[in-house]
Amino acid sequence: MRRLLAGLAVGAFLVAASACGSSGGGGASDKNSSSGGTTTVKLGVIPIVDVAPVYLGQKKGFYGKHGLKLSMTLAQGGAAIVPGVVSGQFQFGFSNVTSLMIAQSNGVPVKAVVNGVASTGVTGKDFGAITVKKGSSITTAKDLEGKKVAVNTLKNINETAVRESVRKAGGDPSKVKFVELAFDQMPAALDSGQIDAAMVVEPALATVKSQGATEIASSLVDVAKDLTVAMYFTSNQYAQQHPDVVKEFQEATAESLAYADAHPDEVRQIVTTYTTIPAAVLAKVTLPKWPAEPNRTSIETLEKLGEQDGLFKTAPDLDKLLP
Amino acid sequence: MSRKQPRAGGSAGRAVNAALGAAGLAAFLALGEVVPRVGIVKARYFPPTSRIARALGAEITDGTFWTDLGDTLTGWALGLVIAVGAGIVVGVVVSVVPYLREATASTIEFLRPIPSVALIPLAVLLYGTEMRSVLLLVVYASFWQVLVQVMYGVRDVDPVAEETARSYGLGTWARVRHVLWPTALPYVMTGVRLAAAVALILTVTAELVIGAPGLGARIAVAQTSQAVPEMYALIVVTGLLGLLINVGARSVERHALAWHQSVRGEVAV
Asked: Does B220 touch chain A (CB under 8 A)?
């Protein structure tokens, strides 16, 4: 037995040594694995409806036609995606526009390359909304003064949007108490009265609505008509070194976005392959819009509002950030 | 660190213990069924046991579930093996070289309390969402469990036995093998058992937060998808995994220490 243990210990040490050895050199080599004219690019996405077009485009062969093969990684929000792209673990990532502007104003070298997702632009029929519990005394965004409102990330796009809704309703956004809560926890928190209102997006929005909650404002629509909410981005370094890959990615994604916009049923189908959204919820989900081009005017509005609310240290340079 | 188990009446006692354990679990599951059904908690956020069981049934017929389970187990096992190997080697070397112990004590005390999850940003920058990110966290957390136990174990060596071995002319390697290792082994086994549990916790946490493939990432997807019963079903799976790992570690410990008085409880000491 003792000999066996000694053997195990030595074996473990060797495994440790070899594992350390392989991890040392592996980092740079797998950046671009090409095989037969096809470049595999790693794309960091979030498991939500918004990124359905890239899954659909991959399935439909739009990326293959442009010599690309996507390798999707489901990350938990921007916490892993932005650093992953900047450090070269992913070639492309998906992030909301405010996060990209904050990153750029902080000197993080990111470059948006192609549109990601946009609001539907229709009040009351958007994929994100401020919701209150059934029977709540809050009926307009102005009533949110002094109330607890949940947003998924403080000092980011959804806080900007809620502030704008309050402002447009004639209220003072500085009187709103914002709390940070993950989208998936909002339905329960709203139901139990821990928060007075929640800025939710799909599929949590469908869940909240199924509980009888009411929408009081479509905040993303309040920011700007047809607001560009999120975009696909890369690092400045990758964009400079591989302009051809970036160009192919742009074209294939634009095609995928247009296809997804025109085929909502296929979108709902593909979503089930990378999320576990229950069928009953998925049927009620309001799909976003997927225009092929970002709406620069709406992004400028978002930037101005963000600046007004103190999100940026220095104003982001949209000419450098946007494609 | 010796573990004395009350052994009430051999196999009959064990059967009673097993029956009590099963009864406790059954009561817990029944409570999980009743509490949401009578409306003490909302069934939408805390589904009854039967609903979770149904979701679990759907999970285990899904091929991707097994891939994810495999990823989690691979991360756990690889991380544990690296941590145990490194912990034993570093622990023994640091302990037997007097100056090394003095030189490293403060560094170890400084590094040990750093929570492994605090290294998540570093792991993401280095390895993205690959398994190596998970390994970094798992190895960091489990390594200290083993290292500290090994160092305690080595310190516990009887000086008389050590001097006797020396006077009989045993070389360094022979003394490590025949005096130091048997003394340290019970401590090492405790370290391994603790490390096995910590490694599982960190594997699932890393997958959950970073998104590296595995059960943790699957839980996160279920959570963002508003698939509540599926989420609980997966949490139950991680619980069962923890249970199995603990039972396994205890049985390895019992076999490895079969000669030791803590296990051979019947010998009068």
From this structure: yes
